[in-house]
Specification:
Order of helices and strands: EHEEEEEHEEEEEE
Helix content: under 10%
Distance between the termini: 49 Å
Radius of gyration: 19 Å
Number of strands: 12
């Protein structure tokens, strides 16, 4: 690995429901900073960042992994919260292996492209519905770049859906495709064909 980029790939399985957590907490920990926002009197959205010194839970740890000694050898962290059985089920349903025994529903939150938006939008659709947003394998991937890396990765190196970097005044996400459906998190539910298509 000498003189080569090193990438850590992470998926969150630390507790039940952890896959409903987006990459935001991880980004805060890696950069030691979190995004902030405020709206001016004219309604304009102002985005910035604030320093996070530590994280306190069952124990206390310093924030800012990329700021720690020897972290410069880590070029980036690849996060995904959808590399699961549910993802494979949805892709099979879409790619010629559909079942006629179940309806497959997906619901969650996704990125709002309105430049004044401060919260994600919600979605629900039946997998395989031709009017539903398309899904590919890279959906849900976030490559978080180390701004202090000794061996930075080329742009669009792995084809992640979004690459996140740290700028002078804000945390900057760069999406592979503008206006593409980008879910933060989702849940997949199978419903028997004999069950009415409503669920809570």
């Amino acid at each position: 690995m000498k003189d080569k980029p090193l990438v850590l790939a992470i998926e969150d399985f630390h507790t039940d429901g952890s896959l409903s957590i987006s990459s935001s907490p991880l980004i805060t920990y890696l950069f030691g900073a979190e995004a902030t926002w405020s709206k001016a009197y004219n309604g304009k959205l102002d985005i910035g960042k604030s320093r996070v010194e530590k994280h306190v839970g069952s124990k206390e740890i310093p924030s800012g992994f990329f700021l720690q000694e020897n972290a410069e050898y880590i070029s980036a962290v690849l996060f995904v919260n959808s590399g699961t059985v549910a993802k494979f089920n949805r892709m099979g349903q879409l790619r010629g292996h559909a079942t006629n025994k179940f309806h497959m529903f997906r619901y969650g939150t996704y990125y709002d492209w309105d430049p004044m938006a401060i919260r994600p939008k919600s979605f629900v659709y039946e997998v395989g519905d031709p009017t539903a947003p398309p899904e590919d394998w890279r959906q849900g991937t976030d490559l978080i770049r180390n701004p202090n890396a000794l061996h930075p990765l080329p742009e669009d190196w792995i084809g992640a859906a979004v690459e996140t970097t740290l700028g002078d005044n804000q945390i900057i996400p760069t999406f592979a495709t503008v206006n593409e459906f980008f879910p933060y998190m989702s849940v997949t539910k199978l419903v028997s064909v004999d069950t009415p298509r409503s669920f809570g």
